[in-house]
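Annex B.
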Amino acid sequence: MGFRMGIVGLPNVGKSTLFNALTKTAAAQAANFPFCTIEPNVGEVNVPDARLDTLAGIAKSASIIPTRMTFVDIAGLVKGASKGEGLGNQFLANIRETDAIAHVLRCFEDGDITHVEGRVDPVADAEVIETELMLSDLESIEKRRANLVRKLKGNDKEAQQQDRLLAAAQAALEEGNPARTVAVDAEDAKAWKGLQLITTKPVLYVCNVAEEDAANGNAFSEAVAKMAAEQGAGHVVISARIEEEISQLDAEEAEMFLSEMGLEEPGLDRLIRAGYELLHLETYFTVGPKEARAWTIRKGTAAPQAAGVIHGDFEKGFIRAETIAYEDYVAGKGEQGAKEAGKMRAEGKSYIVKDGDVMHFLFNT
Ligand SMILES: Nc1ncnc2c1ncn2[C@@H]1O[C@H](COP(=O)(O)OP(=O)(O)OP(=O)(O)O)[C@@H](O)[C@H]1O
Ligand SMILES: [Mg+2]
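Ribosome-binding ATPase YchF: predicted structure tokens.
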């Protein structure tokens, strides 16, 4: 299914540092000057899930395959970006294709690191970026509506629907509200998503704090938390610089480092999980001696469609799914034990897969 998160923010706030930590590479150039990033960076990240390791341990699986998420790091946006200032605007197209936005906010004081607005104020920064995203949506809407004019004359139903939805988004944006504030009927939901407007995407604010604030946050991140709550957005507190250091350590060193910092787990794990929640994603597992593997689905996905994530044929020929809840699998010390305890269920086409289910699909070919 490939879920994608776009990383946006002002220049020099730590986007590429975060991207590198996430992807455990130095693929993105991160340095102390604004507009360091020019070309967008795309990277895949494992979704951390301790349950997968537990399952693999029980089943003695030869390999462990976590589920993946994609991150896209683009150039910093500045005030006026949509009018051609800076570089970011031309890369916003890459953000249109994502499922959610990770909005990085500078929440650290450091006289050596240039802030393009000359002061640290994450809430004001968030507004600058949100305005640019809204202007970018408006511009794209105007272009698209102009392109639809001919089709509309031809009484094209699809074009009519698109134009109606674009007009609704335009009206909201012209009033200074993001397109996500538009109420959309169920029958328009798919076409609405297809418009790929940036300000319809869910937002996760990433408070990039100083190393010493990584464990408990600071006044800046608290202000962001309040703003996020008001908007119904998510937020995480992270120190991109620490995360970058941790990502270069081996597991044992990383654990020591984390405990010294008073952290229970890497902030990146929290960030990825928050992204998962924001997107209403869940994980189910397939477990055997060959491999233990995690698969991503949207909440509320029925068994055949969940099977379809593995292979289209699984969905088409779906018969039933032998299902064991994660807890039952662990309690039974594996499939056999769970089965003997009567915890293996045969589920049919209407079964809604639950987070943590261990699934075995039976299908016709
Ligand atoms: N939590 C932090 N504390 C202190 N310095 C940090 C922190 N996070 C990032 N930095 C530093 O800020 C500088 C800018 O980081 P980075 O290049 O990742 O920003 P960016 O948002 O990608 O910028 P651009 O938009 O120009 O590409 C780097 O020198 C980085 O080491
Ligand atoms: Mg960068």
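Residues 300-363 form a domain with the Ubiquitin-like (UB roll) fold (CATH 3.10.20.30). Residues 79 and 128 are 6 Å apart (CA to CA). Further annotation is deferred to the next reporting cycle.
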